[in-house]
Amino acid sequence: MVYTSRINVLVKKIIQETPLIKRFLLSPINKAALPSFSGGSHITTFIQSSGLNLQRSYSLCGNPSETQLYQIAIKKQAHSNGGSLYWHNEVKEGFKLQISYPKNYFPLSFKAKHHVFFAAGIGITPFIPMMLDLQSNGKSFELHYAAKSKIDCAFYKRINVLFPSNIYFYFSNEGKRMLPEIMQDQLIGTHVYFCGPQSLIKQFTKKAIDYGYPKTSIHFELFSSQPKLDAKPFEVELHKSGQTFYIPKNQSLLKVLLEAGIKVPFSCQVGRCGTCAIEVLSGEIDHQDYFLSDKEKKDQKTILPCVSRCKSSKLILDY
Fold it and tell me: FAD-binding FR-type domain: from which residue to which, for each copy (predicted)?
């Protein structure tokens, strides 16, 4: 892992935000204060218990000016791989764990004249500290937030108290939908931000481009990669060692390399940060990342093994 050190924390308080979402307040064990962070930052949590080794990333949703506590919110997922279920069912107040230092792959653009946030469900979490940052600096913003109902809307009361204006809710049980057309007729210099299901991010990103937003004015956050439905297995050869590996259709190249003891630096695991980039000597890459430019993808010289795969039968990596 690229994180060189970790912070020991304990769960100071747990708040049930909605029937499926809990907020966890984390306080430092051995430090007087936690490292400062900016809006859009996340931490990775590390839990080791009874043979269980969980590593999950969550957006920080507290006030960036508060250094005595970190706050994260976690939704209990029906098809969890263990992360959200463990947090909801096993983690109690007083529970000790380790976390990474904050990282930010979803920062605010301070070149923007106006910021428009689009959140769905638990996707609201990074926007709270981002809006607090903007509010403290007197910057212009608005929030559009979709949820199933008011009961299922995390931080509903808190948002209304903190940000009494330019906040718009869309509850599907009331027949209200958050539509991408909201992005039309915004001021020149507006930046848009998306966080929620991948289907929403893809839809709104495409529409933003159709409406003429420059790619540099479009921002989104991902914490999980969507499996490629038509993924095929392929072979990888490491040029420097001569080792070869079989990559099954249901595993990433990065995971196979790590499990084989190959030390590949990584961080986000969703194709956003570029930390795991590896040079490719031969083979056709099936790019699935959001980091490389169109030109870099066309050049077929670099792969992000956390998400990208192979269109041909074999890749040879300069590794």
Answer: 4-109
Cβ neighbours of residue 309 closer than 8 Å, sequence gap 6 or more? 228, 231, 232, 234, 247, 253, 285, 286, 288
Tell me the pLDDT tens digit for each residue of 265-287. 887 788 878 889 999 999 999 99
Rg for the chain, CA atoms, rounded: 21
Cβ burial of 36 (10 Å; 0-12, 13-18, 19+) is exposed
Instruction: Quote the CA–CA distance of 80 and 109 in Å, as a whole number.
Output: 33
Q: Are 133 and 115 in contact (CB under 8 A)?
A: no
CATH topology of domain 234-317: Ubiquitin-like (UB roll) (3.10.20)
Question: Regarding the domain delimited by 114-221, which CATH topology (the fold level of the hierarchy) does it fall under?
Answer: Rossmann fold (3.40.50)
Rounded Cα distance between 284 and 267, Å, is: 24
Residue 148 CB partners (closer than 8 Å, separation 6+): 121, 171, 172, 173
User: 215 burial class (0-12, 13-18, 19+ CB within 10 angstroms)?
Assistant: exposed
Bridge pairing between strands 234-238 and 314-317:
parallel
Distance between CA atoms of residues 232 and 188, nearest Å = 43
CA distance 207 to 180: 7
DSSP letter for 37, please.
-
Q: Dihedral of CA 100/61/74/225: which sign?
A: negative
Per the CATH hierarchy, to which homologous superfamily does domain 7-99 belong? Translation factors (2.40.30.10)
pTM of the model: 0.84
